[in-house]
Amino acid sequence: MKKIAIYIRKSVKGDENSISLEAQIEVIKSYFKEKCEFIIYKDDGFSGGNINRPAFKELMNDAAINKFNAVACYKLDRIARNTLDFLTTFNTLNNYGIDLICVEDKYDPSTPAGRMMMTLLASLAEMERENIKQRVSDSMLNLARSGRWTGGNTPFGYKVISLDGGKYLKLDDKDNIKYIFEEFANGKSMFKLAKEFNFGKKKISRILHNITYLQSSKNANTYIKQILGYEVVGSPNGYGYLPYGNYTIVNGKTVKNINGLKIAAISKHEAVIDLDTFIKVQEKLKTFEGKRAPRISNKSFLAQMVKCKCGANMLIVMGYKRKDGTRKFYFACNNKCGNSFVDINTVENTALSLLKDVNFFDKITNIKKVASKDNSKIKKSIAKELEEKKKILDGLMDKLALVDDNLANAIIDKMNSINLDIIDLQNKIDLLEKEELSFRYNKEDLKLKEKNRKHLISDFGKMNMEERQIAIRNVIDSIVWDGKNIIIS
User: Fold this and answer.
1) Which CATH architecture has domain 158-288?
2) Per its UniProt record, what InterPro entries does this chain match (predicted)?
3) DSSP secondary structure string, 125-158?
4) Class in CATH terms, 2-130
5) What is the pTM of this model?
6) Nearest-CA neighbor of 182 among 279, 275, 281, 271?
7) Closest CA to 486 of 351, 329, 338
8) Most buried of 76, 274, 372, 405 (most Cβ within 10 A)?
């Protein structure tokens, strides 16, 4: 049985010019010819000027748990008199999959006219969201274009100075900024850096994530826009970026801005970190994010990197004690699948032998040659088709207003079909852009890995076990023992 939530509201008790609550209920119930179960939400004596009404709040809470299939009201203004409040309510119910039916206004999504109204309301709601987003964007852009420092915690290595009536950043500790980025990129842990500077580990993490230190360039603009999700303001000139909108207020608390607008303005302060180093640092940071560093055995620099052919990790186990009191160590399958043990020294020597080869990346598996790929012609063709589909959709929208209900159904079906085509074409463009980006940054990644390989081989003898474990992870991803062969990828 279909469940219908009936929402009724009357502003002032005893108002003779307004239909009574009881009459509203009767009109709504009589509208539904089929047998339905009704749940009534009543706000008596509450204005429609805002949505801060007890029964309305209860209605929306119940909608969130899908307590009913549709919300029915006497007229649209019973829900809200404020356009934004109504559009927000409509959009929320729509997202929950709940229909909104207004009996007196003849708004019912099960009819062609109702579906047309739903499309129009959804468009208005989207337009209102875009308008709000644009106003926020314009405000942030005006602030960002000036390149001024707007307050907050001063980035490490800079001081704030007053100039021409505004505040700007001035470089104050170039050497230590470079030291933190370069040492982390070359294998030093955040923990060790924090200990050296007497900082918390979180502060080191914030420094390494901060685009303030990155030198602006055309390639840097592309990286922070497509990889880090910033809108870039200004022309690259070698100076640093100032980030705006990294944090936002939610329920009175400052939290990281995940999906909202973030702006990177090219500023007037000196920056000291080149793009290659910055990307290398960001790639390393990704491997740590959301993970608590596991305890790694000190018996091998390949600990926790070797996998069995069955997919399980291979653990380090001790062999029998020899006559001289020493023991051999082996990698053994954690799943005990029957794969043979393999001597740690054998795996380490094989890995080092390969790493010393200048053609290392040509010999190991899972490294593909990076080819340049120009998708501009394909994208141009798809974009042209996309514009044509949009024009057809606009034409159908104009026709819809002039035809009767019989033709309206056919036009709405056609509009839905074209909408699906538009979404598909836009997805194709997005995919091509991601492909281009992937080609570009895979090439950069190989360059960084080759640089890391040279560093590992040249400094291997000077490194302690922890430094070796970190350095090897900057070059290779995993090692598989299949019972006969050691496969490095």
Assistant:
1) Alpha-Beta Complex (3.90)
2) DNA_bind_recomb_sf, DNA_bind_recombinase_dom, Resolv_N, Resolvase-like_N_sf, SSR_resolvase
3) HHHHHHHHHHHHHHHHHHHHHTT---SSSPPTTE
4) alpha beta
5) 0.40
6) 281
7) 351
8) 76
